[in-house]
Amino acid sequence: MSNAPAAPTDEQALEAAVEALRGRRVAVLTGAGVSTDSGIPDYRGAGAPPRNPMTFQQFLSSEAYRKRYWAGSHLGWKSFRAAGPNEGHRALARLEAAGVTNGVITQNVDNLHVRAGSRRVVDLHGTVDRVVCLTCGQAFARDMVAARLAAENPWIDEPDLVRLAPDGDVEVHDIDAFVVPTCTVCGGLLKPDVVFFGEFVPTERFAEARSMVVGAEALLVAGSSLVVNSGIRLLDQATRRKLPVVVLNRGATKGDSRATVKLDAGTSETLAALAEHLGA
What we know:
Blueprint: H1 10-21, E1 26-30, H2 56-61, H3 63-82, H4 87-97, E2 104-106, H5 112-116, E3 121-123, E4 126-133, E5 139-141, H6 142-152, E6 190-194, H7 203-214, E7 218-222, H8 229-240, E8 245-248, E9 261-263, H9 267-277
Parallel strand pairs: 1-2, 1-7, 2-3, 7-8, 8-9
Antiparallel strand pairs: 4-5, 4-6
């Protein structure tokens, strides 16, 4: 007979997480797993198809790449825009309103935290509902650019089944005739205000995220595998200061070995339970 201690039950792990967070000001980092219940898939979750996202260098390099990107992004945006906040997003908004958390740092680009009512949100990787000109810096609402795209490319219809990615992109073929949008101010290149692969998180944006961790007494990571460097750097900040760290994610993450408590559970129901236990 083994003398190894029994693995904690889900309820025991939840109680341990509540104990780690209770009475402390909590910084929150979220990833794609928080939005899966809103119909937006995870890059790395179980069953996620292999992807080869376009890099920033490719986007800049040729009109063909930009046609492929904008055609896919336009189709994906329709489905992406239809997604709504889930109970996990709403639970985090309640925690902030109750003063338990100091806002949300998110790796997601879907803007669902803001739509759920969170007031202080640091979009580490940007947001798809905004478009910027790479030449003059002018910003545009994504809905306005989408309307131009639809008018200039009336032949492009949303497929019945769109394989949507966490960045709002889908795979599209036969896009030679696609008209790429340009800046109405200077005629420059437009790009959704998201951090592409091959780009860095803007320094000032990461500094704001870091200040939230510095100003906290605990860190809650929800729905992130912590594979992306920006998330690991924030975890490093927390562990260097010996803050309690709660990691909530289906499956393994790169932060599990440093977690005070690991919750291998769904984010929506678990965040709602945490909010209830913490008085939000």
